[in-house]
Amino acid sequence: MEARKVLVADDSPVVSKILSRTLQGAGYTVINAADGMEAAQAVYCELPDLVVLDIFMPRMNGYQVCRLLKHDPLVAHIPIIINTGSDVRGAEFWSRHTGADAFMFKGSPPAELLITVAQLIPAKPVAPTSSTIHAPAPEEILCKLSTLMDQELYASIAKQIELKTILENLCEGIITLDTEQQITSANHFFCQMIGKAEYELNGQSVGVALGEPAGAEISEMFAQALAGQLPPSRDSEIRSQSGGLTPVAINVELVHDYLGETIGGVCLLQDITRRKQIEALNQVKNDLTHMIVHDLRTPLTSLLTGLQTVEALGDLNVDQEEFLNISIEGGEILLGMINDLLDISKMEDGSLRLEYQAVTVSDLVLRAERQVNSLAEAKQLKLLTEIMPDLPVFSGDEDKLLRTLVNLLSNAVKFTPETGSITIAVRLADNRDEVVFTVHDTGEGIPAEAFERIFEKFGQVETRQAGRKMSTGLGLTFCKMVVEAHQGRIWVESELGRGSTFSFTIPLR
Fold first, then answer.
1. Cβ contacts of residue 326 below 8 Å, gap of 6+?
2. Contact indicator for 96, 73 with CB cutoff of 8 Å
3. Neighbour tally for 237: CB within 10 Å
4. Which CATH topology does 5-149 take?
């Protein structure tokens, strides 16, 4: 088989001789070139299987030769190794950037060179697209190179213009800083926020240009980033020339050059005026909810206590006892709704805490049954239980889990026609890491399109028999929040005409 050809281009005769001997000793045919121009011409004339290029050579450097060859479809397939003794930082980066297939420092062991060459040379020689390839004259090569550089310069400028256009049209403030925290650029939106032109900001310290409080915040965040501590986003305020304050969310990121050296940073300032307004309105809503709930719960609790006392002490006839029970049950349902609303509000603002204790499944289910038993009897519904024996005791907030079960059972009673049945089932999950609770009813079922919104506040479920939509209230929203607070899952399965099954899991702790 014909020996594979390697072109060695180096302006040092000593280096060229060493490389040639190493390659020839391994059975390669070596072609030598003393400068970049000679190397480029030799590639077209000889069509070598691989090229080894020095970087700094007369007439054309190695980067230029590599870029030229890799942009010519006739010879782009030929592997190129950049081989240099230069200690210029970034040599490897620029070698890859110009299209080189490998990079090596002169002085590397000969075995390393031979391994790299063997890996890059294709197993079978690549046949040229034409039987003859025109070898360009030096003037033609320089013209090709000049055209190529012009194209890359144009593409680079076009990319910069595109990027600047994007930045100028962003609805967020952006400034760039050097390592001394001086502003090097600012987009149009930021200039509008602060009421200054970009030329007024460039060269100023960010702390001075922005002042308190945002300027100091950015300066501190940038210092943290330089120290290797990536700062999280911060909320602050930026002051305009007119003295007005705009609430902003600040993010700071460092910018690195191709060597990984920090050359500055970029700061993103997002106008969060709307978010702050919504937060303020939510706070007003939460405060109002807490006030209303507390004002309702106190007298209702007193009323229920009085009714329960009458029930315990009074000598009542059948009708009186029935009316009293209805009043107590109605009051308890209303109190449950008030408690749900209060707890949902607390969960949303993060102030609700779970009170963990040991929970026994059978006791939990029995307590839930007692609370809905009279409601079920009023509709002649059967309450059935299927509890797996020997279920382990788990840790959870028993009161909130009880209300979760009661809410699911109350909904089942509400949507199940008379003489139907409701089944409470509890089992250990297949993975034995969690307990699975299910509440199944024989109601008319829930349409699939309602599954996603059924756990929302006052979610609507359309009933076929009643021909109207009925609200699920706050109960299912409360259930979802409680289950997820326990790191569990809740879902619904249903088929129209065949009932619904609500399931939730509680991890064993």
1. none
2. no
3. 15
4. Rossmann fold (3.40.50)
